[in-house]
Structures are given as structure tokens and as C-alpha cells.
Amino acid sequence: MSDKIIRILHLYSNDMNIYGDRGNILVIKRRLQWYGYTPEIVEYNPGDKFPDNINIVVGGGGQDSGQNKIQKDLLSIGPKLIELANTGTPMLVICGLYQLFGKFFKTSSGEIIEGIGLLNIETFGKSERLIGNIVTHSQQFGDIIGYENHSGQTFLGNNVSPLGQVRLGAGNNATDISEGVIYKNVIGSYLHGSLLPKNPAIADFLIKTAVINRYGKFKTINIDNHFTDLARQTALKRPR
Amino acid sequence: MSKPLITILGKAVRQVAKLRGGGSALPGLVVERIDPNFIKHTLASLPLGVVVISGTNGKTTTTKMVVELLESQGLKVFTNRTGSNFTRGVAAALLGDINIKGELDADIAVLELDEAHAVHFVDQIPPKYSLILNVMRDQLDRFGEIDHTANMLRHIANATTDTVVLNREDTLIAGIAKSLNHQKVHFFGLDDNLLSTFPSDNNLHSKSKKSKTNIKADVILFKSSKNYATFTIDSKNIRTKLKLTGVYNVFNAAAALALVRAIVGPQINQTKLINALSQVTPAFGRGETIIVNNQPLDLVLVKNPSGFRLGLQSFDPSGYATMIAINDNYADGRDMSWLWDVDFTSLQSVAEVSGIRAYDMALRLQYDEVTVKSVQVNLKKALKHFIDTNNNQPKRIYCTYTAMLSIRRDLSKIAKVEVIK
Q1: What share of chain B has pLDDT > 90, as a percent?
Q2: Which of A24, A166, B234, B373 has the fewest CB atoms within 10 Å, i.e. the most exposed one?
């Protein structure tokens, strides 16, 4: 089995894990197992040595206090993350880390919190909180279903594409209909819920990309998506 | 309008609301509109003042304990026992207890208030005592972030005039002590051997062990076993039988003891106090047991990940058939993310999954590789199927707030269920 290892980097597992974001790690871990691979989860926290041979990077959202704790450390590993992204490593960053993967977060009081600039996006803190069920649509992944809860509003720059177009809810900001971002194999999004359980197409994209990067080919097998399909159907009908 | 008139009007609305089977807050709303100072005036006359109990988990059972412990010391206590834990609910409860002149025959008021409502309440009516239990992720879609919730609790402590009782083991709550200057501060806590049983949200994902504290706690939970608990009070260990189940309820008993000791002072009758504690039963839906076809059926309310985790740790699943009912109505919270912050692997098998978000729950269990025997969104049908297919077995239902209300209603048709006024 040792030749079928996939290493998942869980970024800032102690401070950036709000609103069930650990569900994303669990989904990647289980689906890898169901596909016959051996997931190895490497937790990374401020001050740790940056691990080698990473195949997938996952990070979540945090509270203001959590973001303050990790921001400096994130800037120090930024070049390593950019190098991984440039060599095609799949990544998923939600909410707080999505924002800090961008150029900056400008708070409502005017303070600039520098991001690592992996994504060409800019975020502005607002007094209004965008909260509720959200449904977006993407050609690649179909309907993307989740829950958003953020006061930062993100605007996309020129070399990145939105992950989906909002059908219900707010998305990146209160102005346009974009939600999230996709750039190379890096996905950023505001969706909790958790995102991956009810959107296995995105989970499988991350997994397939990682496996092909490491082993050259990926053989899919059928996973029982019965509960997933019904949970998606219910979620699509719930109010904002 | 004169006070007796407002009282009569309010009481009349209360009767009509009751006849309609309506909620407990409506009559309170009517009175508040007519006399915004109604609660303030009525509560100001109490000789021992007002006690506010707040925090994320365990407010209702703790309030019930505090009331019964104070009564054991011979005090007359007013409380908002309908579980309508916001200002209008308090006004509604007052209307039921005051006489026609608008006087309240009580020594002290013990009020359960949720964080967001407590903040406004204490600005109007500063409590003499407050008890802050914990801060966990709960209904975040309503309150925003956990730090924000902690700030609301700090505000309650700051508005308190005499004594604040705080949870020593919850970092954010214990930290409130630093911002208090004129209040007395008492703590309740856990013995080191129990610390690992209570992961807070803050150290949930952290592997580092909670460091030892040197804050002295007035009451410490030393040991909790099936029907007994041992508390350390004044460096003496006191063992007592309990009707409460679930370690989190027992920990809140330490909170209730610390608060009542602060209120009554050195003349407290400890024998009567501990005797009363041993008689306290859990509040409705907080581990209450209903007998259905000669088998016990436990109802466990789950509102947030920490509460669900503590519930799963507190109740041994072996020998029990388990049902989980998850709704996402406004009162439950719309966001399903929290289910992914709970580890369900200890369950191994769940007999019935139900509620509006039954399939979210079933999906959650699939990813923990827990067997799901039946999924039925409709609560009434699911409850019947659950009882029919597990008839000769003890049963346990974990349910969100609105699912619990619905399940209790259906159970009351086939079993004896305590009516909540």
C-alpha cells in the first residue's frame, strides 16, 4: 500500500477550522480510502517545519483572533505555497484563508492585512454580514451548495475565474454574482456547509488531480452517492 | 395607564394566548409596549435582587438547579421557567406570578437569558449576581463569531453589581475576570482528572494539553460516575447521589452550587443544599427520560457541536437504539456545518435518522462509516418506525430544538410527558 500514499497538508488546523471546515479534510480522507489510496494528513501550525511531498493543500476559515495568529507565519511560507500552486498542486481554501491567499484584506477601519498574493483577489471588510444558504453554478462542477457567513467582500482580478455564478445568496461580494475563485488547480470559496460533503465533484477534482500529479493516472470507482444526492436535493429547497 | 390596569390587561392577554395554545412571549410583548418599565419596576422591589444565568450550553438545567437550591435555603424564587429566555418571556412569566396590584411575592429572581438578549436586559436591569457558563459555537448564523459572543457575556459580567461566577475551564470565560474591577469573582471548575472530558471549542483541534491553572475555584467537580458525583467545596470532598445524567449537567451542578453559595453566604445550610441537589431532575429535553411501552426513551437536546460531543460522551450507546433528528428551522440554526465538527464514530450504528436535514445527517454518518438503518424525513413517521422496530430496547433520541418540540408532542399521545406551561 505504501506506493499509494497521498499527502494532505491541513493548513493551520488549530486556528483556522471554523464552521465545520474539518469536514473537507474528512471527505478527502475517506474518498481517497474508498478509491484505494492511503491518505496521510499533515497538520501545519505556526512555527512548524514546512513538510515535503505534499499532494493536496486544504485550509479553512477562522475568527479574527485566529487570523491574527497565523498571518505572519502564512507570509513566511507564502513562496512555498506559490511554488506548489505553480507546479499544479490542487488546493482548497475557504473563507479566511481564501482571503489571505489573495493580495490583501482591508479592514473596515482601513487597516491593510497583507496576503500571500497567490490569488489575484482583493478583500474589503464591510459592516454588513453576508449570511445564509447559498447555491452557485459552475460548468465544471454543476450546482455548488453551501452556507456563507462572512463580512469580508472579495473582488477578483484579471487572471482568475470565479468558481461559480450565484443563484441564491451573495457570494464573493454584494455587487457582482461571482462566488469563489479557480486559478490553476487552486480553489478558493466562501462556502461552508462543509463544502466538500455535498459537492463531491469538487472533492473528486482535488483527489484526481493529486493522484495524477503523483502517480500519472487515476482509476475511478463508484462511490455510493445516494445520501449525497438527497442531501443536495433538500438543501436546494431550503430558504436563504 | 395605572399599574393594576396594565397587570389586568397583561394577565388577560396571557389567558387568551394560553387558550389559543400560543407562545409564552405574546402577553409579555403587549405589556412591554404599554409600559416599557414594567419588568424594571417589578423586579426592583425584590430584596435579594436579580440573578442572570447565561452562556451557550446548559442554561435551562442550571437555572432549574439554582432555583431548587435557593428554595432549599428557604427563599422564594421567581424564574422564567417557560424556557422563553428573552426579555418578553420574562415579562410573560412575571404576569403569571404577580398579584393584581402588580407585586411579586418573591425574595429573588433567577433568570435564564441568551447572550444577545441578556446584553439589552442588563443595561435596563443590572443584575446583582451573574453566572456565565461557557461560550461555544452555537447558532453562529445569528450571532456571528464566537469572540463576539464572548464579548456579549463580558458585557453581562460588567453590568453585574455584586458577584460574578465564572467557568474556570473555559479560557474565554475565565478571561472575563481580568476586565472586572468592582465585582467579586468566584469560579467553578474541574479537577485535573476530568479536564480531558471537556474539550472547549478553542482547544478542540489543538493537540496541546490544557495547561494547569492556578486560579482557585470555589466549587470543583472532582468525580462523576453513573448516579453519583463528588464535589470539592472548601477543600472537602462531598459525594452525593444525583438524578441528573450526563457529565455536562453534573459540571453545571458545580456552577449552580458556586452561585448559590455566593448568594446565601456563610450561613448556608450545606446538608439541605446537597440534599436538594440530589433531587434535581434535568430540564425537559435535556436528558429527560420518558417511558414508552415499558422501555425508557431518553431525549437529548443538541444545539451545537460541543453540546453534541458532550452528549455522545455522556451517554453510553451500548444496549440502546439511537435516533438522530436534525431540523434547520430558524430556532435550530440554518447552517449544517456544525455536524462536521462532531465525531460520531462512537455510535457504530444508528437505527433512525430524521428531520428536515435527515440526509445531511445520514451523509455525515456515512463519512464516519457509521451504519444507518433507516432514514425518514417526516418526524412523526420516523418516531413511529423507531419505536415499532426497537420495541423491546431502551432508546435514545438526539434532536435539535424544533425537532424535540415535535417529538415531545407526538410522544405525549402515547406516553406520559411532563407538560411545559
Answers
A1: 53
A2: B234
Query: pLDDT (tens digit, 9 = 90+) per residue, B128-154?
Result: 999 999 887 654 444 456 778 888 999
User: Does residue B343 sit at the A interface (CB-CB below 8 Å)?
Assistant: no
Q: Is the pLDDT of residue B418 over 70?
A: no
Q: What is the mean pLDDT of residues B116-126?
A: 88
Cβ under 8 Å to B: A residues 22-41: 22-23, 26-27, 30
Shared domain for B350 and B297, answered yes or no, is yes
Cell of B155: 458585557
Q: Which residues of chain B from 48 to 67 reach within 8 Å of chain A, CB to CB?
A: none
Give the domain extent around B253: 3-279
Last residue of a domain, one of B246, B279, B312: B279
ipTM entry: 0.96
The total number of structural domains in chain B stands at: 2
Last residue of a domain, one of B279, B296, B328: B279
Taking the Cβ of residue B364 and every Cβ of chain A, the question of whether any pair is shorter than 8 Å is answered with yes
Same domain? B126 vs B148: yes
Which residue is closest to A27 within chain B, CA to CA?
B367
Same domain, B270 and B315: no
Confidence of residue B34 (pLDDT cuts 50, 70, 90): low
Same domain, B73 and B161: yes
> Is B335 within 8 Å of A65 when comparing Cβ atoms?
no
Q: Do A230 and B359 touch (CB under 8 A)?
A: yes
In chain B, residues with a C-beta closer than 8 Å to the C-beta of A224 are 366
Q: Are B13 and B20 in contact (CB under 8 A)?
A: no
- With an 8 Å Cβ cutoff, is A230 touching chain B? yes
In this prediction the pTM is 0.76
Name the residue facing A27 among B305, B359, B367 (closest C-beta).
B367
Q: Which residues of A are catalytic, by number?
A: 95, 192
DSSP SS3 for A129 = strand
Q: What is d(CA B184, CA B129) in angstroms, rounded to the nearest whole number? A: 10
**Rounded alpha-carbon distances, angstroms, from residue B146 to A18, A98, B142, B228, B404:** 10, 20, 11, 33, 25
Domains in chain A, please, with CATH? 2-237 (3.40.50.880)
Mutant choice from A16, A134, A151, A227 vs B, greatest count of B C-beta within 10 A: A227
Q: Where do we find the cell 471588510? A: A125
Distance from CA of B135 to the nearest CA of A (A): 14
User: Is B418 among the domain residues?
Assistant: no
B159 and B216: one domain?
Answer: yes
CA-wise closest residue to B368 among B342, B388, B386, B389: B342
State the smallest CA–CA distance between residue B337 and chain A in angstroms: 4
CA B258 – CA A136 distance, rounded (Å): 51
